[in-house]
Design goal:
Strand content: 5-15%
Catalytic activity: S-adenosyl-L-methionine = 1-aminocyclopropane-1-carboxylate + S-methyl-5'-thioadenosine + H(+)
Pfam family, one: Aminotran_1_2
CATH architecture of the largest domain: 3-Layer(aba) Sandwich
GO biological process, one term: amino acid metabolic process
Radius of gyration: 27 Å
CATH superfamily of the largest domain: Type I PLP-dependent aspartate aminotransferase-like (Major domain)
GO molecular function: 1-aminocyclopropane-1-carboxylate synthase activity; pyridoxal phosphate binding; transaminase activity
Helix content: 40-55%
Shape: globular
CATH topology of the largest domain: Aspartate Aminotransferase, domain 2
Enzyme class: lyase
Length: about 475
């Protein structure tokens, strides 16, 4: 009685990434009401700078009250506005904000911008524009688990992983790109492009200039598209500084070429401003056909005109945006260092990172076996026994077991301290068990060795002890 789309199991909701959320929702941590509950460290939310936004709203009450600068009501005007192209004032403010995040090294044209209800909608819309059902996009691993839903579920597109390794910090290489392309060909899939997140979710690292050049060269050679999801571009809190794909195109004098038309950017205010509930996303493309088609498709996921109006006022306040970006980065860096140092005290290290709302954490030494079964066993212990919801690397399609994404910006400092105390207790307990296990293995090995020795060895040993006793 239902469609195949409804009854198929390709949404990805059964991933451990989402299952961890479900367990958290059953037993959420609360400092007073439920101190033994599960702490949510699997959600990449930025809650560190709400006070800055709330302060702006307090000092600028007109936009939230739907009034203009003359204190006249514009409620009716906003309530009736329904042009899916979006409010010009908001689009102009957004492209300027995107330039500001990138140090004004590049500029964006509001005519090339398409507004969508969040980055999820932006990525799916681009899939509809660029790929037919059964076509493939190559994505470096590890990658955001939600891409399996966002890119594939309704579009029918496929994902082929570009396998990256810890030996070079999970950096993209030319050989990995070529291997992924060949793998797609083996599966009889037509490759339509490459999608990257820059900075990376879940690695928390920004792409190097070498990697960006590799990608531009690769799509040029293969005549395919490149989608750069730059949703975390404003969260870069330490060196190296952030480089957008747009900057690479400009520096290589490629802006007015066919290559530039095949490069598309996804952006959102969900991470940089911490406003996921406002559903503010965007597609930026140099291809007029893509902009036109995506604009028509945006009818299915519009941003309310009230939201656009409010955000256009906030983003147009350049003194505020400059102060906000600087302070938010400072707070992210401070909180990142707090998590890294807390984990280091327990003997757990993180991949060196410079951006994002999370760390890519190495727990390979805590695995009972170097397998994904061992990873899931450890993950269940951390969720149910330690009371922390973190994301296992397998949910991010990491090719090496034992890595986990741990978020740090969606909680208070006090809650993070509680989380670190729990990790310390768990690590101490694991260390004791490992010592006991090694001792037990040693005893068993000695026992087996003793049983395998011939009888004359025991007789000689007994005779030697008798001689030694007589000599004493």
């Amino acid at each position: 009685m239902l469609s195949s789309k409804v009854t198929c199991n390709s949404h990805g909701q059964d991933s451990s990434y989402f299952l961890g959320w479900e367990e958290y929702e059953k037993n959420p941590y609360d400092e007073f009401k439920n101190p033994n509950g599960i702490i949510q460290m699997g959600l990449a939310e930025n809650q560190l700078s709400f006070d800055l936004l709330e302060s702006w709203l307090k000092n600028n009450p007109q936009p939230a009250a739907f009034k203009n600068h003359d204190n006249q009501s514009i409620f009716k005007e906003l309530a009736l506005f329904q042009d899916y192209h979006g409010l010009p004032a908001f689009k102009n403010a957004l492209v300027k904000f995107m330039s500001e995040i990138r140090g004004n090294t590049v500029s964006f044209d509001a005519n090339n911008l398409v507004l969508t209800a969040g980055a999820t909608s932006a990525n799916e819309t681009l899939m509809f524009c660029l790929a037919n059902p059964g076509d493939a996009f190559l994505i470096p691993t590890p990658y955001y688990p939600g891409f399996d839903r966002d890119l594939k579920w309704r579009t029918g597109a496929e994902i082929v992983p570009i396998h990256c390794s810890s030996y070079n910090g999970f950096r993209i290489t030319k050989s990995a790109l070529e291997e992924a392309y060949k793998e797609a060909e083996k599966q009889n899939l037509k490759v339509k492009g490459v999608l990257v997140t820059n900075p990376s979710n879940p690695l928390g690292t920004s792409l190097s200039l070498h990697e960006l050049d590799l990608l531009v060269n690769f799509i040029s050679m293969k005549n395919i598209h490149l989608i750069s999801d730059e949703i975390y571009s404003g969260t870069v809190f330490s060196s190296p500084s952030y480089t957008s794909i747009m900057e690479v195109l400009e520096n290589r004098n490629l802006m007015n070429t066919e290559i530039a038309k095949r490069v598309h950017i996804v952006y959102s205010l969900s991470k940089d401003l911490g406003l996921p509930g406002f559903r503010i996303g965007a597609i930026y493309s140099n291809d007029e056909l893509v902009v036109s088609a995506a604009t028509k498709m945006s009818s299915f996921g519009l941003i309310s005109s009230q939201t656009q109006h409010l955000l256009s006022e906030i983003l147009s306040d350049k003194k505020f945006t400059k102060s906000y970006l600087s302070e938010n980065r400072r707070r992210l860096k401070e909180r990142h260092e707090m998590l890294v140092k807390g984990l280091q005290k327990t003997g757990i290290r993180c991949l060196q990172s410079n951006a994002g709302l999370f760390c890519w954490v190495d727990m390979r030494h805590l695995l009972s076996s170097n397998t994904f079964e061992g990873e899931m066993e450890l993950w269940k212990k951390i969720v149910y026994e330690v009371g922390l919801n973190i994301s296992p690397g397998s949910s991010c399609h990491c090719s090496e077991p034992g890595w986990f994404r741990v978020c740090f910006a969606n909680m208070s400092e006090e809650t993070l301290n509680v989380a670190m105390q729990r990790v310390q207790s768990f690590a101490d307990c694991m260390a004791k068990k490992n010592i006991q296990s090694r001792h037990q293995q040693l005893l068993q090995r000695n026992s087996r060795r003793s049983k395998s020795l011939p009888k004359w060895v025991f007789e000689l040993s007994f005779h030697q002890r008798e001689i030694t006793a007589d000599e004493r």
